[in-house]
Amino acid sequence: METTDTGNLIPNNTNVTCNLELASKPSKNGLYNVYLRITENRKHRRKKINVSVKKEDFNKKAKFGKWIRTSNPREKQYNDYLIQEYQKAEKELQSLELEGKANKEILIQELKGSNKISFTKFADQRAKYFYDKGSYRNYKKYKSLTNKLSNFRDNEISFKEINLDFIREFESFLFSLKNKRRPDFNLHKNTIAVHFSVFRAIIQEAIKNRYMKPENNPFMYYKPTEIKTQKEKLTIEEIDAINKLELPENSLLWNCRNYFMFSFYCAGIRAGDLCLLKWNNITKEKRLEYTMGKTSNFTSIKIQPQALKILSFYGKKGENKDSEYIFPLLSNTALYSIVNTAEEAETLPIDIKIKLYNKISSMNALINKELKTLAVKANIEKKLSFHIARHSFADIARKKKISVFDVSKMLKHSSIKITEAYLRNFDTESQDQSMKIIFNTK
Q1: How far apart, in Å, do the first and last CA atoms of the chain sit?
Q2: How far is Cα 39 from Cα 294, in angstroms, rounded to an integer?
Q3: CB crowding 251-271: b at 16 or more within 10 Å, else e
Q4: How far apart are CA 346 and CA 40, in angstroms?
């Protein structure tokens, strides 16, 4: 890149050029503002420079640094300032060229300083982005991280501060925090890993927006460690024990057993999806069709007789309006009840989405509380929760030698590798058999 006598920037590897010009109209004081005009493909963006002169005092075609004529009493001061602004633009454009990102929009952002925000503000913006988008689950994750960063540092955190030492100090801070659900314990290692996955995502987005250089990304050298937790599951005998319990019909405990068993018989439908099921999710061919809230995957399952029996307790299709919820977990008169699909739910106003999210969360908590009582009654010494229906389905399918491909399709995993890793957590029988062989025991 070189500078001509007129002061135009002549780039070597880009079609972005800059020059100085006056405003087309004078300000109220009769003076004309000087602008830096950035041109790309004959389209212009302008940045105002804090120099105002009479129209006759400006010479656009003058030699470099001589734009303001000597007729202006501040000629030298103004020209020096314009040279400084021009050289700043030249330096920024050279930097953008080296990164292969030279365009007028990014250059104008650099020159206006609109990208010179703190990490704290950028992280808050990312949280707000998910809130405005209606992705309340992600918003809560991002907000949880920003709150902890605020507790870690009272003042705003700049991008320059984000380095490996900062990450390690923040990690130590997180390990010292108490677990709100279990106050006798500190934060779980896996919870801390989730916080850092959000942290890493913010850094990656900042790099895309050129707030941070890729080589300054501390996550190139740091990866949080997680603990592989044992996935609890029920045996077919324990499933039978729950089914055989004598429970008062229409009681809360009776309903919660139905929810759990319906999930088990329908390939482990998640609690959030179960709450949202309506009668229009049941086809004439007795198939359950819905879109998973977590993955947005469409699911179509042939409803087995055991699941059809559970549905019969809540009314057969035809007796209920198609738009009503199957299970008495959500209100049919609530504002969120107008949607019938996951796609429609995404278009709900954010305040209604939050109400729906909170209602589903409270229903999930209520069901899990009742399932613990159910486990005691069935003499099951396991911490029973709704999600265990999904684990149990997968494990029993594995034991019955169902192909990994079919299990993967039923669970709606994005790849068979995920299913293989998922099922591997349940496979202890082969290890037990190997131990017997090693020690010659029965």
Answers
A1: 81
A2: 45
A3: eeebbbbbbbbbbbbbbbbbb
A4: 38
Angstrom distance (rounded) from CA 123 to CA 139: 11
- For residue 380, the Cα-to-chain-centroid distance in whole angstroms is 37
Express each pLDDT in 233-269 by its tens digit: 899 999 999 999 999 999 999 999 999 999 999 988 9
CA-based nearest residue to 274, from 389, 392, 139: 389
Cα gap 312→326, rounded to integer Å:
10
> Is residue 123 a contact partner of residue 146, using CB atoms and an 8 Å limit?
yes
Per residue in 60-106, pLDDT (tens digit) is 888 888 999 999 988 998 889 888 888 877 776 766 665 565 565 66
Beta sheet of 32-40, edge-to-edge order: 16-22, 32-40, 43-53
Residue-wise DSSP of 352-386: HHHHHHHHHHHHHHHHHHHHHHHHHHTT--S---T
Q: What global pTM score does this model have? A: 0.66
Instruction: Say if CB 71 and CB 59 are below 8 A apart.
Output: no
CA-CA-CA-CA torsion sign (368, 313, 289, 277): negative
- pLDDT of 283-309, one tens digit each? 999 999 988 887 778 889 899 999 999
